[in-house]
Amino acid sequence: MGTHLYFSTQIGTQKPVTIVNNGNSCPFCDVDGLENIIAREDSIILLKNKYSTLKNTLQTVIIESDDCDSELSTYKKDHLYKVIHFAIKNWLELELRKDFKSVILFKNHGPLSGGTIRHSHMQIVGLEQVDYKENIQLECFEGATIYKDKNVEFNISSKPKMGFYEFNVVLHDMTAINNMADCIQTAADYILNHFHYKCESYNLFFYHINGIISCKIIPRFVTSPLYIGYSIPQVTDDIEQVAEKLKKFHQQKHKID
Ligand SMILES: [Zn+2]
To answer: What's the distance, Cα to Cα, between the start and end of the chain in Å?
Structure first.
């Protein structure tokens, strides 16, 4: 079992960068120029990543819409649901192929997210030699409740994986993907527009462990040195208060009683 992914520097240096405004044209807006399209639903396109930097993997990209300026936090409900359904469906299909030790689904948004292209997208990557599940403790999905019904749980980690604020959405029933999508959008909107820290970047990470799908929504800042150097995560002392704020925000945003 592998513990590391091998990054090709040669391909990495060829990758276009549009996440900072540098006058580079956006490759995802040039729909006619896209190659190796795998699946498509309206403006949502799954294709092979042209710059596959990771060895022993299959790297794919989901372009979420044909609007370069749109963002998951502002999608109308029908488009939000379509994107999350499309992403989860194609992710699980790749898992079924059994070519991979594990398959990851994630999203980078903003300058500190690790992404290079600004146009809203997600990535599905099949890992031939690494099982991401080995590194995940299930307790990192538990925490202060924001919303809960019999199908979906939305909380802030009390034992975060990396540290500070980690929002989790745990899906107990596959028929409730729309509810999951609402919770993910609440977290993204809250992070970008209503957080008590100024934050322009976040990641989504999806996990499929013991038959349950979970999503972490993580605001990104400069990473804590204690985590980088010692793998010690930190948790803040106000997660209950932040959960209360989010509870109200989520109810208002999605008109939940
Ligand atoms: Zn674009």
So the answer is: 47
Q: Among residues 93, 103, 105, which one has the least CA distance to residue 204?
A: 105
C-alpha to C-alpha distance for 74 and 96, rounded to whole angstroms? 32
* Residue pointed to by tokens 């992710």: 91
d(CA 138, CA 157): 11
Expressed in angstroms and rounded, the spacing between residue 186 Cα and the centre of ligand 1 is 24
- Model pTM? 0.96
Return d(Cα 166, Cα 215) in angstroms, integer.
10
Give Cα 141 to chain centroid, integer Å: 15
How many whole angstroms from 189 Cα to the centroid of ligand 1? Answer: 21
Tokens of 16: 């276009």
Residues carrying CATH 3.30.428.10, the chain? 9-133, 137-254
Residue bearing tokens 């699946």: 39
CA–centroid distance, residue 67 to ligand 1 (Å): 7
Q: Please give the structure tokens belonging to residue 136.
A: 């995940």
CA distance 50 to 44: 17
Q: Give the integer Cα–Cα distance in Å for 119 and 61.
A: 11
Residue with tokens 């997208």: 121
Q: In DSSP terms, which residues pair with 209 in a beta bridge?
A: 212
> Could you read off the pLDDT of 95-129 as tens digits, one per residue?
999 899 999 999 999 999 999 999 999 999 999 99
Domain 9-133 sits in CATH 3.90.226.10: no
Domain 137-254 has CATH 3.40.50.2000: no
